[in-house]
Amino acid sequence: MDWLLIIVMLPLLAAVAVGFVPGSQRQAIRGITIGASGLSLLCALIAFLSFEIDGELKFETKVLWVESLDLHFHLAADGINIGIILMGAIVAFAAACCADDITHRVKEFHILLNVMIGGILGAFASMDLFFFYFFHELALVPTFIMIGVWGRGANRNYATYKITLYLSFGALLALIGLIGVYVQTGAESFSIPDLIAKVQSSPIDESAQQWIFPLLMFGFGILVSLWPFHTWAPLGYGAAPTATAMLHAGVLKKFGLYGLIRVAIPMAPVGAQSWLGVLAWLALGNLLYCGLVAVRQKNLNLLIGNSSVAHMGFIFLGIASLNVIGLTGAVLVMIAHGLLAALAFGLSGHLYRQTGSLDMSRMGGLLRQMPLAGSALLMALFAGCGLPGFANFAGEITIFFAAWSAGLKTITVIATWSALVIGGLYMMRAIRSILHGPRGDDWARASDVSPLIATALGLLLAALLVFGFAPGLLTKGIEGEVTKIVRLAKPETER
Amino acid sequence: MGDQLQFIQLEVMVVALGLLVLLADLFLSESARRSLGWVAAGALGLVFLLSFRESFVGLADGEADGEAFGGIYRLDGLALFFKRFFLLTAIFVLIFAMDFASRLKGGVSEYLAFVLFALSGMMFASSANDFSLLFVAIELITVTFYILVSFQRHRMHSLEAGVKYLILGAVSSAFLVYGIALVFGEAGSLKFDAIRDAHAELLENKVFLFGMLFVFAGLAFKISAFPFQVWAPDVYQGAPTPTTTFLAVGSKAAGFVLLIRLFGSVVPELTVQWTGMLMVVAALTILYGNLCALPQRNLKRLLAYSGIANAGYLLMGIVAQSGEGTAAILYYLAGYLFTIVAAFMIIYLVTRDGEGEDISCLAGLNKRSPFLAFALALCAVSLAGIPPLAGFFGKFLLVKSVAAKAFGDAGYFALLAVAVFGVVVSIYYYFGIIRTIYWSKDTSDDSPLAIAWPTRIALGLCVAAILYLGLLPNKPINWANAAAKIEAATE
């Protein structure tokens, strides 16, 4: 079965379908969107469960697109992206459920939401460089428009411009890097497996790799809010509508990391060797600097935004250690953080709807006021500081081992310290000021989450816990693929 | 001679059509004259279809190798591509002009005839294989444009634009003719074929180099490349909008077909020698266009600066010095044609009842006409080079062709960096347009916009083409490659 094709096409078809529904039919629009993302979640689940780990590409769809460039529309899954696609589908469904806070121009919003979901899933499913990039942009443009039109707060316009310019710049840098890869391999194809096979036999010229890798590293890095190019992220998420923030922070942002693992390291291993040290130090910037910034936040969304930027530091560190456990941990944290970020932004979106403010100093005692949302937030914040039992813990601890064994000892010590102490500090403070203590004055009439949103958020939590207790579900597949990549980068090591 | 005329049958038809329009004006009643534009557009459509005839296309690789009139005229894939390109542009411009007719107080028929004469000049330019034909074709285009630009004699702006274009156009012609004279003096011939054979030995010859530099300057005026771009914003803003469209698409493409032929196939070794200069010109054009577009409030002026920036991107294809680069130029121009035509048409429709073309008049457009709002937003997104639209794929091909050269020469990298910087800057002002359309609060006018059916169909075609070129590039890229390949084969 071409599961991936169905998974990617369902949201895009839903976007077309919503286009034909009159704008006044709010229920129908919501129904189509939730139905399509629910179905594509179901397909993703079936695909994930029926996925056999044998190092081959699964669920392939390959159609010739542009003959003269040997460009194929090529979707396929391997051990790395199957988990990410499942995570993406879960987040997409949750985001569709949480999008009922949109009150004006519902139709337009849902068209864009569906396009964004289709783009995100397509980007991770693509095995062709062109479509890999194409789908990412397809998801990115709706993000900008959604923040601009349906965003919140006085800073909305500024945030829209900032996120648009930063992300476009990052994407273009990465594009030049990708074109560089294509041109330098001398391959007449954009297919990622073909390119990897090609560089295995004849690697890209080393001096060119020294150009290509930093282009990809900074290009993709900006997309993932690599310090010091991260300032768009908290601001953008603070201004974004709930569903957009969930999808972007949860899934779309991971595109850059995925690109680093899937394209940058295999194609330019020599460049990677000389630049990953820099990446490790920048990762520390994410962990330490953004963590400290998060401590000072009074607004819940800015807190989540900054902590999400800080969490990217773990993943960068995992990638920088360039060994099997490091990359495995990085992919695991990508998936865990995707679920977590979606959960956190979904909850903050719910809180925002109650009073129109996310000022934490005016909150308090919400655990009693809204038991469901409150306990979900409690768990999300605990998962955020790496409590064992959640998938984040499994990934983060792996990354620390990896970084230590890769010889990044100083960085590991600082990173562990910052993750545990700073992360713990701001998460605990958030729990205290939001959930405990006397009830904030404005919150007397706040109500708990609706059953639909509760289902969506419950699903995210359940996935976090399942992958937390049984990370083997993901890591088995990831490990096999990652081993190939590490072998490419460091042929001398066996594991 | 009869055989020779076959080669220029399209041009002959266009000129005859222009004369017919002029004559018909004398005999037709006022009401019948109104439909003259539709007839002319329909006739051009027919000419467009005729250009696909087997017997005509076959001339390109027939016995004479596509050359006629003693080798001064050349019919090859590149020429055919551009002839069709210009015909298509002119069809859109004629449809546009009919919508605009009530404002052309100087007489609609004359306006139509001049559009047709300029078109024939562009079509000759695409086949120029000799400096004399090149100059005559360019002059035919430029002189008719002096009139087309200042056609609204009752408007000071139009006259002012006409005078500016006249003066600067004359300077550029002077450059061109002076350059041609110097080249002739050293190479001993005006024929491209002869110069191709001779130029390798003239690379050290200062007089020849000066001549070619002047020729380049003359053509750079046409495409509004830095530092010969100063005329563009004023002229674009002041000219009647259909003229602006024709100028932005047709005149610029005419400059490019000549640049491609001259620097791609006639003096390739000189192009190699001048790579650095061409890179600097391309980079500065991109920077100048994009940075100056940032503060613009007048839409036509904004598009003029964006047109300058686009000339810079297109020059990247020349800098790449490969068939791939040429194909990228052709692809990009095709996308540019539909985008710019649609954008100017919409700007005219939105601003026709008011005075000036301030960006604020787009406010509330999505309420006044969702179709126009969508189409203009699509144009802006395509110009910004965002997938899945025509502009993205064109930029992708251009960047790819330059990147193919970039490793081993840091200059190409710098050019790529400038291009990326330019694109990011341009996203800022293109999104400014989209923002005003969709979420500007201060709407002064909520009345729905009435759009005539032909204009609506033309706009629909443009939108479809922008999407087609972006989403299904397979066939068009083959056409572009084929057109570029024949050109490369003559090297």
Please outline what is shown here.
Chain A is mostly helical and 495 residues long. Chain A contains 20 helices and 2 strands.
User: H/E series of chain A, N to C?
Assistant: HHEEHHHHHHHHHHHHHHHHHH
The termini of chain A sit apart by 34 Å
Strand order of the largest sheet of chain B: 1-2
Order of strands across the main sheet of chain A: 1-2
Structural class of chain A: mainly alpha
Average pLDDT metric of chain A: 85
Largest sheet geometry of chain A: 2 strands, antiparallel
The fraction of residues in strands of chain B falls at under 5%
**Could you describe the largest sheet of chain B, including whether it forms a barrel?**
2 strands, antiparallel
Radius of gyration of chain A: 21 Å
How many helical stretches of chain A?
A: 20
- Helix proportion range of chain B: over 70%
Structural class of chain B: mainly alpha
What is the helix/strand order of chain B? HHHHHEEHHHHHHHHHHHHHHHHHH
What is the helix tally of chain B?
23
Description of the molecule:
The complex is a heterodimer of chains A (495) and B (491). A two-stranded antiparallel ribbon of chain A has the order 1-2. The model of chain A has no long low-confidence stretch (mean pLDDT 85). Chain A has 495 residues and is mainly α. The longest helix of chain A has 32 residues, at 324-355. Chain A has one domain. Chain A is 75% helix and 3% strand. Chain B is mostly helical and 491 residues long. Chain B has a domain at 274-491. Chain B contains 23 helices and two strands. Chain B has helices at 2-7, 9-27, 30-34, 36-50, 54-57, 77-100, 108-127, 131-149, 156-187, 192-198, 206-223, 231-238, 241-266, 268-273, 275-293, 299-320, 323-351, 365-368, 370-383, 390-406, 410-439, 453-471, 474-489; strands at residues 67-68, 73-74. Chain B starts with a helix and ends with a helix. The chains are: A mainly alpha (495), B mainly alpha (491). The A-B interface holds A 64-69, 133-134, 137-138, 141, 144-145, 148-149, 157, 161, 164-165, 168-169, 172-173, 175-176, 179-180, 182-184, 205, 207-208, 211 and B 381, 386-388, 392, 396, 399-400, 403-404, 406-407, 413, 416, 420, 423-424, 427-428, 431, 434-435, 438-439, 473-474, 477-478, 481.
